[in-house]
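User: Just a sanity check before I run the rest of the batch. Below are the structure tokens for the first item. I only need the designed sequence back.
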């Protein structure tokens, strides 16, 4: 991971949070509207991860993500 953290601009950067049930999530920007972006896979190390393309934040659901290496 790049360590990217978006710099939010009020009224410009979408503040969209999506609850997920797995530590690996695919993002193509479609949830943010417009035309999206190339599909990328993100890994949630702790509790959330933010897409470097569209700034959608994926939040791990309570009790989810015990993947045990899978």
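Assistant: Here's the designed sequence for the first item:
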């Amino acid at each position: 991971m790049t360590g990217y953290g978006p710099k939010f601009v009020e009224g410009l950067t979408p503040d969209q949070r999506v609850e997920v049930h797995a530590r690996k999530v695919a993002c193509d920007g479609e949830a943010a509207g417009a035309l999206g972006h190339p599909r990328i896979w993100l890994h949630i190390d702790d509790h959330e991860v933010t897409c470097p393309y569209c700034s959608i934040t994926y939040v791990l659901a309570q009790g989810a993500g015990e993947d045990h290496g899978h």
